[in-house]
Specification:
Blueprint (H helix, E strand, L loop, with lengths): L6 E5 L13 H15 L3 E5 L10 E4 L2 H9 L5 E4 L3 H4 L5 H11 L3 E4 L3 H5 L6 E3 L21 E4 L15 H11 L3 E4 L4 H6 L2 H4 L4 E4 L5 H10 L2 E4 L10 H8 L4 E3 L10 E3 L4 H13 L1 H11 L5 H15 L8 H10 L15 E8 L3 E6 L4 E7 L5 E8 L2 E4 L9 E6 L2 E7 L6 E6 L4 H7 L1 H10 L2 E5 L14 E3 L10 E5 L19 H7 L23 E4 L12 H13 L3 E4 L10 E2 L5 H10 L3 E3 L3 H8 L4 E4 L13 E4 L35 H4 L3 H11 L1
Parallel strand pairs: 1-2, 1-3, 3-4, 4-5, 5-6, 7-8, 7-10, 8-9, 10-11, 11-12, 13-23, 20-21, 20-23, 21-22, 24-25, 24-27, 25-26, 27-28, 28-29
Antiparallel strand pairs: 13-14, 14-17, 15-16, 15-18, 18-19
Helix pairs in contact: 1-13, 2-4, 6-11, 15-20, 18-22
Length: 703
């Protein structure tokens, strides 16, 4: 392609000066485009929209409303999409629609995150160009760093909500706290408002907060003074984004989220999950020298000079198309210059209707009058093909897998990919049901319905046997009774204990109870506590009291009467009233709650000092109400139930944990189920071996 000198105009967004003297990502991008394009012998001006005319060869605009103004003036332009709100607000939002209009009216448009191409299926003008970094400025000074120090650098919050943890500060601080490492969180003054919502995180003793909008020189010093950069962001319009590349350029390994197909040396991709982040940090610390050597060797490929060379190729390919724009001509010229990752341009299928949904498994139907044959694939996000077959028009296929997978559906005509679509639930209706009447299961699993809604930005219809616990606390979720027929849904998922690897990828009894929900919904596993509908009433007893719950749904869950009575007597001797709240009643010498309705039981729990219970629904209820629980459970492993505010009573010196062993499956019809020692003198030894004094010693910790 002949290389011509171009007269290029970059349009200023108009809010921040260029080059930026403060916090401004778009302005930094425009400035680096200008510097590098001038090195390629182009004339580059930065102007406001009201100063443009038809004289420039290339007009490049970075904000949607300004692009639409150029279109009204009849001036052809290239548009860059920088707005992550197009994802947050959804495809029905005004924000999305004006960006789509700006793309459609452009000659060609650029996105800096590959996934956004799939987010705009109604246009074929959007192409991917990554961000870059000034590797001559952002570079290591090889200073000695004897100890590891973590760094976050970002402007947190989302769409005016200063409390929204878009950048993952809370995950980063929790990871630092777990590893007992110092961490710095730096950024603009707006971050002060964010941390007002999270005082427990702001008060981490090894946290340094810098909310003073550091300058470029100060940012460079931050990178040089730390060893690992954390970026557990939820939503970005650039993948990789600018700070991630700057950190790498200073030879800092990065632990964070990334939604791109191209591998980046030194970037360790994690979920927004504390355990995942901690594991990656530990790996980086253990392999630090080798990782930094790889970064140093490869970072130049991300330099702005390399990126702008590609941008220049794009400019050159369309320089002659300035007026009377012919979309197909522009598109084909641009595709020739389109040097990117594995993202390929796909020509759409003509005269066919393709239907997909994920109700009771992924479903694909091809409708039309063609006699052609098409090869269809269902591919997971690791690139593994789970299903492949050849079908014709007016045929359909369905997979058996019922749990969430981020499917990519590919359709080939011969060897040519003619259709590809990645699962996207944004603003779609999704039905999620809980396949259990158990109170504990319901409370354990429900918070992940909300988590799924937030992750996919979809509209949730929830079906549980205990809707009254949640209706007021989750106003954005629609509730229906089990068995209700729900129309116009894109997907349906059932959460339950399924010994079926098409419904649940792991044996349910071998994992923590809450992980059942995260496995089925495709979420990272971390303990979440639900919000429940409860308004405290008057304190039921004047004295300090402790609630106990001695009953459960199977014999192996019970503790001994002798043990319970000794604990009751101890609490009374310490001046505590003891209230037994199990509705089954008891023959122990203890006060039985007479009104065991759910609302009264919750009120008694709310005002109690704490609960002593078993692995049962009432223990999960106390946890959901943010009460301390002393749990006597030795038939499950210690991580099977919740961990927050739970004092666990076990005895690992005897047979224990049978519930969580893969070789055993609980028999609901056998009250005396004990898979190894039934009808022997060791029957239920897991709980019979727990002494009252062991429980009392644990209670003393919280009295």
């Amino acid at each position: 392609m002949e290389h011509s000198k171009l007269n290029i105009t970059q349009i200023s967004p108009g809010l921040i000066s260029i080059p930026p003297n403060g916090w401004g990502a778009i302005e930094k991008i425009i400035w680096n485009y200008k510097l590098q394009l001038e090195k390629l012998n182009h004339d580059v001006n930065i102007k406001y929209i009201n100063h443009i005319d038809h004289s420039q060869d290339i007009l490049h605009i970075h904000v949607a409303n300004l692009a639409i103004e150029a279109a009204k003036l009849g001036i052809p332009y290239i548009f860059s999409l920088h707005d992550h709100h197009v994802v947050h607000y959804g495809i029905e939002s005004h924000n999305y629609k004006i960006n789509l209009e700006a793309i459609k009216k452009s000659i060609i448009s650029i996105t800096h995150a590959e996934y956004l191409i799939d987010h705009f299926p109604d246009t074929d003008k959007l192409f991917y160009l990554p961000h870059g970094v000034d590797t001559e400025f952002f570079k290591s000074d090889n200073r000695n760093k004897p100890d590891h120090k973590l760094l976050c650098l970002a402007n947190n919050g989302l769409a005016g909500d200063s409390s929204f943890d878009r950048k993952g500060f809370l995950f980063a601080i929790d990871a630092a706290r777990e590893l007992n490492l110092p961490i710095t969180v730096a950024g603009p003054i707006d971050n002060i408002e964010f941390f007002k919502h999270y005082p427990s995180h702001a008060n981490y003793e090894k946290l340094t907060l810098r909310c003073d909008s550091p300058t470029e020189d100060e940012i460079l010093e931050l990178y040089r003074d730390h060893t690992i950069f954390l970026h557990p962001s939820m939503l970005e319009a650039g993948h990789p984004n600018l700070t991630l590349l700057e950190a790498l350029s200073c030879e800092l390994p990065v632990v964070g989220t990334y939604n791109g197909t191209k591998k980046i040396d030194g970037l360790f991709v994690t979920d927004r999950d504390v355990k995942s982040i901690v594991d990656s940090i530990q790996y980086v610390m253990n392999n630090y020298i080798d990782i930094t050597k790889k970064i140093k060797h490869s970072i130049k490929q991300h330099d702005w000079s390399r990126i702008v060379e590609r941008l220049d190729g794009m400019y050159q390919s369309i320089k002659s198309i300035k007026t009377n724009v012919i979309n197909q001509e522009a598109k084909q010229a641009y595709i020739k210059a389109y040097d990117t990752t594995d993202k390929k341009y796909v020509e759409p299928i003509e005269n066919l209707e393709i239907f997909t949904h994920f109700v009771d498994g992924p479903f694909l139907e091809v409708k039309g009058n063609s006699d052609k044959k098409y090869r269809v694939q269902f591919v997971d996000d690791n690139g593994l093909v789970h299903y492949e077959d050849t079908i014709g028009c007016n045929m359909w296929v369905r997979l058996n897998r019922k749990y969430f997978t981020k499917w990519r559906v590919n359709i080939y005509e011969g060897s040519t990919l003619v259709h590809t679509k990645i699962l996207n639930f944004e603003n779609q209706r999704v039905l999620i049901g809980l396949d259990s009447k158990s109170l504990g299961d319901t409370l354990a699993w429900f918070p992940y319905i909300e988590e799924f809604k937030n992750k996919h930005r979809c509209k949730i219809i929830a079906s549980t046997f205990h809707n009254d616990f949640f209706k007021n606390s989750y106003p954005d979720i629609e509730f229906v009774e089990p068995g209700t027929v729900v129309h116009n849904i894109i997907a349906k998922y059932e959460i339950g204990w399924f010994y079926d690897n098409n419904k649940e990828p792991e044996l349910p009894n071998t994992i923590p109870l809450q992980k059942t929900a995260t496995n089925i919904l495709g979420l990272p596993y971390r303990e979440l506590i639900p919000n429940i509908d409860f308004v405290p009433k008057q304190r039921p007893y004047n004295e300090k009291y402790v609630a106990i719950a001695t009953a459960s749904t199977a014999g192996l869950k019970y503790w001994t009467k002798e043990g319970w009575q000794e604990v009751i007597n101890y609490l009374k001797s310490e001046g505590y009233r003891v209230i037994h709240i199990s509705k089954e009643g008891t023959d122990l010498q203890v006060e039985q709650l007479s009104d065991t309705s759910m609302q009264n039981t919750m009120n008694v729990l709310y005002h109690a000092e704490f609960l002593i219970g078993l692995s049962s629904g009432l223990s999960w209820l106390a946890w959901a109400m943010r009460k301390k629980v002393v749990m006597i459970s030795n038939f499950t492993e210690a991580d099977h139930e919740f961990q927050t505010d739970c004092i666990r009573i076990t005895n690992t010196q005897v047979c224990h944990g049978c519930w969580n062993k893969s070789e055993f499956t609980f028999d609901k019809g056998d009250w005396n189920w004990c898979p190894k020692h039934k009808n022997t003198d060791r029957h239920f030894e897991c709980h019979r071996s727990i002494k009252a004094q062991t429980v009392i010693d644990k209670i003393k910790i919280i009295l």
